[in-house]
Structure formats: C-alpha cells, structure tokens
Amino acid sequence: MDKWLYRISMILAVIGLIVSVYMTIYKATSNDAMCLGSGDCASVNASRYSEVYGIPVASVGIAGYFAIMLVHWYERRLYTSKNKIHKDLEVVVEQDEEVNPIEDVSVDETEVETEENHPDEFFEKNGPMLIFGMALTGFLFTVYLIYVEFAILKAYCPFCLASQTAMTLIFIISIIRLVRQPL
Hints:
Blueprint: H1 3-29, H2 40-46, E1 51-52, E2 55-56, H3 57-95, H4 121-153, H5 158-180
Antiparallel strand pairs: 1-2
C-alpha cells in the first residue's frame, strides 16, 4: 500500500465530507449568510438539481465520502495489523533461536483460517477496487453536476466546486492505486 496515496485520498475524503456536511446544513437552513464567494450557492441550492429523489445532493456526498473513508480506514487498519503481527513474529523468532516444531498436534482443519479464507483479507485485497468503484460512481455524478452548474444553471458554487475537485482527485488516485496494486 502506497501510504502517500492513501493519506492524500483520505485527506481529500475528509475535505469532501466537511464540505458536504456544510452544504447539507446550508440546504436545510437556507441561510444565505453561509453562501460565500459569488453568491451562486443560493442559485445552485435552490435549483431542482440540488436534490435526487428528494434527498439533497450534499447528503449523497456525505454518504459517498463516508463510505470511501470507511473502506480506507478498514483497509489501513488491516494493513497495519498485519505488519505489526509480522514484526512481532520476527521479534519472537529472533529471541528464541531454538524454536522446535511441536509434533503430533491434531488440528481441526475446519477451524483453521488461511490467507485464502480469512475475512479480513477481503478488504486488503479488494480495498483499492472498492474505492475505485465508489470513486468512479462519484466522479460520474460529479461530471453530471459540473455540466448542470456550467451549462444549465450558469452558476458556480465554490463549495460544490471544492467537493467536485476532491472527488475528481480521489478518482485519479484510486486509478493509480489500482494500477500499482500487486496481483
């Protein structure tokens, strides 16, 4: 796992989450004092495009960014735990050079978790693909929202643009992580 790409992606997801929470509060309160910059937030927020089946677009953003952060966190937690276990095992082996294998131990094979069937391995192996799938979905939705802002509404909400930039960068990073992932 490339920790710099992970960190940048996680920071961008946090930024996106904060912006989405802010815009959800703005949508719920319609407090125009929260609209900074050009004032076009009000136009975008009041448009029929600001909701999907009655759910504010910013709330969809909260769910998306939170899901990306959750997969990142779980993927990182497993990666860190696995490395700690490997380091602990190395220390134990170094301390006891005369490790003798135990003979005649019966093991119930149905209870043994191997690398192939360990439940935590799912996120370690598929985390980058899950994040890519979520980032692709978010990016495609972002492209639609950019089209709506620029072509239909002709209004430019700085908070929306910040969220759209964050999702686009998360998508680009997810592609890089996916390509770099060992098979």
